Amino acid sequence: MLSSIGSLHDRITSGLRFRLTLTYILFFTVLLTFLGVFFRQTLKSLYDSQIRNILEEEWGAVRGYLRIEKGKIIWFYDREDPEEAIIIDRLKQIYLLTDQNGAVLEVSPKYEQLGIESPKEIRENLRRRREAIWTTRKGPDGVTYLIREGMLTADDDKPYFVAIGRSYEEGDRIIEQFTRYYSVMLPLMIVTASLLGWFMAGRALSPIDDVAKTAQRITGANLRIQIPPRGADDELDRLIDAFNRMIERLDAAFQQTKQFSTDVSHELRTPLTAIRGQLEVALLAAKTPEQYQEAILNALEDVERLSHTIRALLQLSQAESGQLVLQKQPIDLSALIRGLMEQFDIPAESGKVKLTTVLPSYCTVEVDRIQMERLILNLVSNAIKYTPEGGSVYVSLQDKGRDVELIVEDTGVGIPAESLPHIFDRFYRVPSATTEKSPERGLGLGLSFVAWIVREHRGTIDVKSVPGEGTVFTVRLPRGEVNRVEPTLATAERVERNAV
User: Fold this and answer.
1) Largest Cα–Cα separation, the chain
2) Does the reported pTM lie above 0.85?
3) Distance CA 447, CA 453 (A)
4) Residues 6 or more apart in contact with residue 353 via CB below 8 angstroms
5) DSSP summary character for residue 422
6) What is the DSSP-derived secondary structure letter of residue 423?
7) pLDDT exceeding 70 applies to what percent of the chain?
8) Separation of alpha carbons 464 and 410, rounded Å
9) pLDDT tens column, 365-381
10) Can you list the domains of the chain with their CATH numbers?
């Protein structure tokens, strides 16, 4: 029981919802504390400003009501007027009047409790003439008082020292009350913010929970599950979209793996079946050494075919998994193509195919030589293989500035429109791609290699084909960091290798 409770506690406290809620709580705690301190200081500042304004008004009243004639102090007001009597009584509550030497002429009892300035302090204050002096003092009752001190000139031009004060008691009581109420309300506001944060975090994370639940339901058999978008076009919608795209890619990868497994099984089963059949026939029917030798030779041919298939699969797998790294270097692509075309003289002649090359005298490109040879050999051999007798194959290289363009064009059987999107897929073979001279089709891996080579060189490949008329492969490759030599028409080379 205790272990299950502890496990539940760990699961809750380690969850993203708990961490987001905790972040909300910390944020609101800091914010509300700051606001409380800010409002408290603002309230205190406003009350202090109000007290100062009141004292300034009362200082003006003192100057209006107080007269000193020949050393005699006279409060000049209408004693029959109760309002003026109240004003004078309020002025005298915290009040001090001395002469220029600091001798006390009048003082209120409350001011005496606060402490009367020394004669030296009074003389120092009178030197400032009419400048107001503000001080704060704490009385014996613990209440703070604000004192406004200054100079008052009598009728005989003698200076007198006057000080009046006001109590902060009411302001301190208001501030203390605000502090007490806010301290009580702060925990309630934090608890409310915590509950609200927990609820909002739950709502915000519900799409992520949907993603997690969907991910748990995904298996190899149901990779078509999609999470419906919320329509808010926010970060969560982008996460859902990315997750759905990932599922689509996984589904495509699984389908490709399935197809790959099926194709591999088929390609490996055919030669193995042939080898087994030939050996069984030889075992049962062969009677002479020549018959055994013929059976073994036929089996070896099928073993070689099987080895070729396995090597091609391994190389393509290494290429697509990143284990095969290009070794780029500047090479003369014209010279490379010129040398490779010599290998096709005999196949083109035996197939009665006219092979034409148009190349610049010099064209430097930064590529992997081995892979580029493979690309050219695959494209040209396919063109010759699927071009009937009397047809032609045209190979050209053109300098396009920062890019070069390799074109392999034939007048062969062509490729149906429905097959064009799939010709670079592994093991895909065009259903109608056969000729009298080439009744057997290849493994369907050559163009997969071509597509990978072009992609790794950051180039593009385009295919146009019309069934019965021919096919054009256009490969465009970046030149790379090489010095470009401008070809001219005079340096272009056209070679017709086989006349029909």
Assistant:
1) 161
2) no
3) 10
4) 347, 384, 387, 389, 391, 392, 393, 498, 500
5) G
6) T
7) 81
8) 11
9) 999 888 899 899 889 99
10) 67-168 (3.30.450), 235-320 (1.10.287.130), 328-496 (3.30.565.10)
